[in-house]
C-alpha cells in the first residue's frame, strides 16, 4: 500500500499529534506522564523559534482508521549539538498506529528524517529506546543503529523541576 | 576562591575548544573530536544558535600557570519532551582539575538550571559514562536520577554510512 503521504506538520495537526503522543506513551506504559497540552504544542512548534519539528503520515479519507482518523503516524525531532562532531538530529518520538503498520510507512518516515539529517549536515541521528522494546530495537539495528548505552557505557540522566528549582536557588 | 559565571561570547570559543579537548581526553575519546573553534563560533553565535554556553572565570591572580582564566564551562541546548514540553539538555559540564572542589561545577549547573527554568523548561537531561564515578556521585547528590537504570532507556545512534543508507532508503 503506497496510499499515504508524508508531510511537514501544520498548526492544524496539533490535536492529532497530541493524540499520537499519548498512544505512543501508552505503548511505553507511561501514559500518565504526558502533561503536554495542544496549546503548548502550538506555541512551541509553530512560533519564530520552534522547539521541535514534526512530520506526519496521512491517509486518504476512504482509508481512515477504525476510529475515523486520517493522520495515522508522526515523528517529532529537533536539532542538537555534540561539541566533538557538531550538529545532530535527535528523534524524540516516532510512531505509526497499529492498524497501519507493515506497509512501509515507518521506513519512509525514517528515510525522510535521514534525508533531513544529511541535507542539514548533521553527522548523526540520536534517539532513545526502552530496552524491553525488542521489535523497535531490531527495527533500528537492522538500519545500522548502535546502542551507545551498551557499547560505550552512556547512561541518560534527568533532573525534574523540583530539583532544578533547588539547584538554581543555591 | 573568587570566580564568576557568565554567558559565553564569541571570544570564549578558543577556551571552550581547549576545554572540550581536555574533557574528551578525560573521557578517553580525544580522537573523536572533530569540531573546530571556527565551527563553534559559527554554530553557537548565529540568530538561532545550535547550542548555548556558559563559562567560569577566575581573576588574574588565580590564572593557571599557562595563563588561562577561563577554567570551566557548560554547553546546553533546548530540546522537547513529547510528554512534558520544553526541556534542556546539558551536553558538557567541565571544570579544570586544579579548580575542582570549590563549588564551580555546582555554580555552572545552577546557572544552567536557572536559565532553563526561566525559559519554561521542566526537565534537564544529560548523559554520563557508567565508569565516571566522581561525576555520577556529584549528579546523584544534586537530585538527578539514572533514566537508563530506572526506566531502561538506552541511548541509540545512527551515523555515517548507516545514516546515508537510511536516507537513500536501502534497508
From TrEMBL, chain A:
Its EC number is 2.3.1.57. It catalyses: spermidine + acetyl-CoA = N(1)-acetylspermidine + CoA + H(+); an alkane-alpha,omega-diamine + acetyl-CoA = an N-acetylalkane-alpha,omega-diamine + CoA + H(+); spermine + acetyl-CoA = N(1)-acetylspermine + CoA + H(+). SUPFAM superfamilies: Acyl-CoA N-acyltransferases (Nat) (SSF55729). Residues 4-166 form the N-acetyltransferase domain. InterPro entries: Acyl_CoA_acyltransferase, Diverse_Substrate_AcTransf, GNAT_dom. The keyword Disulfide bond does not apply. GO terms for biological process: putrescine catabolic process; spermidine acetylation. Keywords: Acyltransferase, Cytoplasm, Transferase. It comes from the Eukaryota. The keyword ATP-binding does not apply. It is found in: Cytoplasm. Pathway: Amine and polyamine degradation; putrescine degradation; N-acetylputrescine from putrescine: step 1/1. Its main location: cytoplasm. GO terms for molecular function: diamine N-acetyltransferase activity; spermidine binding. Belongs to the acetyltransferase family. Homodimer. This is Diamine acetyltransferase 1. It comes from Coregonus clupeaformis.
